[in-house]
Amino acid sequence: MHHPKTHRRRRFAEGLVRSACALLAVTALVATAGCSERRDPTVVPTLAAAAGSGITTEMNLVYSEIDGQSLAMDACLPKSDGTPTAAVILLHGGGFTQGSRSDESMQSMCTWFAEKGYAAFPVSYRLAPDYIFPSQTQDVATAVQWLRDPAQATRFNIDPARIGAVGSSAGAILTLEVATAGEGATDVGSRIKAAVSMSGVADMTPAAAKLGTPAPEAASIILNYLNCASIATCDGTDASPITHIDATDPPTLLVGSEKDLVPIEQAESMADALTAAGVVNDLVVVEGAGHGAQLMNQDVRDAIVAFLATNL
Fold this sequence. Notes:
AB_hydrolase_fold, signal, alpha/beta, GDXG_lipolytic_enzyme, globular, 7 helices, 10 strands
């Protein structure tokens, strides 16, 4: 299906960014690249009710066994009336070298999405430097396929035709890569129905270094991911979502800030390319500084809810 050409640009005031290692309320979701609470992967998955919300959580769900390690996800499931719900996979940041699905920001988002009626699944993926592109993208694709399997769809009461992805920083890159991988129907295989990118890099070619002024931290994300010594000598064409866009790609929400580690020009270029291909997209720019899940002030949360309500 060829989507109508929809491309909106909106600017929101800067939201409150709290201490990265503080206990995160749903009203202040923060990306915590280095403050992760890691779980023992040998723990048997358990199902428990979140007090007073009707939400249930299930931890350490192994979706893949690869290279001698187990890759897992968690689940936050909304109170159900029996009708299958849409699902969102949540992809953490950390520059591809750190971060975890167990980070407080990911767990807070997991609960928040479940409270909004979505089954949410924070996902682990292999990290650099031991694993580089395309290992992480392959992991996310496998996670989508695992959730779409009829057995898992029934287990979690989700609609396998409505699986989306929400990513922060490095996780946003993976979200955009999976969104633009392949072509055709978005309800089969590892295709996704909707994508939300917070501070994602869309273009990893040397020419993209001229898009705004990338922070050293942003450059290091790409160098870690592609195992390159310098941006100038790194051919990131295959890893760049912007080079794989086609008209069948899913609706995409791009979020960034005016003073992001990743220049807002990355999101603007991606939005322009999606529009040129006829893919529904929306660009939200938060005033001031902020990166990844730090951008989730009230306006951005409202924009995400509206976007998913329409497209997922």
